[in-house]
Design goal:
Elements lengths: L4 H12 L3 H7 L4 H8 L6 H11 L3 H6 L13 H56 L7
Helix pairs in contact: 2-3
Pfam family, one: HTH_3
Keywords: Coiled coil
GO molecular function, one term: DNA binding
């Protein structure tokens, strides 16, 4: 009985737009292992399970049908998922940068307020010295 494993692995990799190495990384194998699967080496069942789970493909369809000929293709566009993931990372990095800038601004404001407090403390000291010199200091 013919199986479509190598054809379907090649199809899925092409559909994702990933290089063999990157495609292999999704499933914990090297690019050369993916190359051997594309050439007809039968992968272990664990690999097939991971791949089918990732793409939400029934194992029977993956083994016994050419995925490219299935009218409603269940393949999720991994490349699109990857691009969305990169956008999310960029958005988080932008949020972190904005948070850091806000913290920096607030820290500068705190430092400015501390300087003003120090100036006021010095003015109060000067006022107390002047009042002391003129014996105007209120009694306690």
């Amino acid at each position: 009985m013919k199986n479509y494993i190598s054809i379907n692995i090649s199809y899925l990799r092409a559909k994702t737009g990933l290089k063999q190495k990157d495609f292999g990384n999704l499933f914990g194998v090297s690019g050369s292992v993916i190359s051997s699967y594309n050439s007809g080496t039968i992968p272990p069942i664990e690999f097939i399970q991971k791949l089918c789970s990732h793409f939400k493909i029934p194992i029977d369809d993956f083994i016994n049908k050419e995925l490219s000929s299935i009218p409603v293709n269940p393949v999720i566009d991994v490349k699109e998922q990857f691009l969305q993931y990169e956008k999310n990372i960029q958005a988080y990095e932008d949020l972190i940068k904005a948070k850091d800038e806000l913290i920096s601004e607030k820290q500068a404001l705190i430092n400015e307020l501390r300087e003003q407090i120090n100036k006021l403390d010095k003015l109060v000291e000067i006022q107390n010295v002047l009042l002391n010199q003129n014996n105007i200091l209120p009694s306690k």
